[in-house]
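Quick review question:
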């Protein structure tokens, strides 16, 4: 493990923020364990929408979003988010990620180490598609502390 790795443990999963040890090249990694009871409510989460927005200055960043479980990789997407004047110009939404009772890892990796360059929101929905909760990056880190 790199010496400058910082990990946070949640009761419902884990979030990790990692900076790579190589000189001059850093990245941010967020790992969230997701499952039906991630919100700790009596309503199970069946679908998640993940929104990733670039809020930093500069040219933007490449972002990888992947979901893996005991059966291997279930989803992966690589995209670039740009700075923009409007929320639509600098965000990317991945819709309808299936959530089951088995624990899966949601990984969000960015090739930028600039602090606070991404805004991450996870919209949790029930089996009927109704929104039952929203997790922001700030809330996830606050829960982990």
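Suggested answer, residue by residue:
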């Amino acid at each position: 493990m790199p010496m400058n790795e910082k990990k946070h443990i949640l009761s419902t999963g884990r979030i990790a923020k990692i900076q790579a040890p190589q000189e001059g090249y850093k990245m941010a990694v967020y790992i969230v364990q997701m499952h039906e009871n991630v919100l700790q409510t009596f309503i199970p989460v069946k679908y998640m929408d993940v929104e990733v927005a670039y809020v930093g200055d500069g040219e933007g960043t490449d972002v990888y979003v992947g979901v893996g479980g005991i059966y291997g990789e279930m989803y992966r997407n690589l995209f670039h988010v740009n700075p923009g004047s409007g929320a639509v110009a600098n965000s990317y939404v991945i819709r309808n990620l299936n959530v089951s009772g088995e624990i899966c890892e949601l990984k969000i990796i960015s090739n930028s180490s600039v602090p606070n360059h991404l805004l991450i929101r996870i919209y949790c929905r029930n089996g009927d598609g109704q929104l039952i909760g929203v997790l922001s990056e700030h809330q996830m880190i606050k829960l982990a502390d």
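Why it works: The first helix runs from residue 137 to 144. The radius of gyration is 15 Å.
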